[in-house]
C-alpha cells in the first residue's frame, strides 16, 4: 500500500473515531443527566437504595477535596512533608520549559515520544 493510500485510510479512521466520540459524548451527557435526576428523586423520597427488574442502585457518599487556596495547600504540604496528597505526575509543559532553559530535574529523564500529526487538506 502506498503512503497516500495509508494516509487516506488513517484519515477515514480518524473521522470515524471523531464521529463515534461525538456520539459517545452525547450519550454520556444524557446518562449523567438521567443519573442526576434519579439521585435527586431518590434523595427527595428518602431512599438510599432502589431496584428494578434488572438493576439495584444505591446512593453512596464520598468525601473529596476541592482546593480553594493553592498557596495554603502548598504551604501545608511543605511544612508537613505531605507529598502523598499530590498525584505522582509532573507537568509536561513545565518540564519542557525547564529543559529548554537547560535545567535538569533530578530523578527525571527526558523521554521522546513520536506522534503523527494529521491536517486535513
Brief account:
This protein is mostly helical and 121 residues long. The protein is built from three helices and two strands; from the N terminus they run H-E-E-H-H.
SSE topology string = HEEHH
Q: How many individual domains?
A: 1
C-alpha Rg (nearest Å)? 24 Å
Q: How many strands, what sense, and barrel or not for the largest sheet?
A: 2 strands, antiparallel
Mean of residue pLDDT values: 92
Low-confidence stretches: none
Give the count of helical stretches.
Answer: 3
Order of neighbouring strands in the sheet with most strands: 1-2
Number of strands: 2
Outline? flat
Description:
With 121 residues, the protein is mostly helical. β1 and β2 (56-58) form a beta hairpin. The chain has helices spanning 3-44, 70-79, 92-100, and strands at 49-51, 56-58. 50% of the residues lie in helices and 5% in strands. The protein is built from 3 helices and 2 strands.
Task: Give me the secondary-structure topology.
Layout: H1 3-44, E1 49-51, E2 56-58, H2 70-79, H3 92-100
Antiparallel strand pairs: 1-2
Q: What key attributes describe this structure?
A:
121 residues, mainly alpha, two-stranded antiparallel sheet, 3 helices, 50% helix, flat
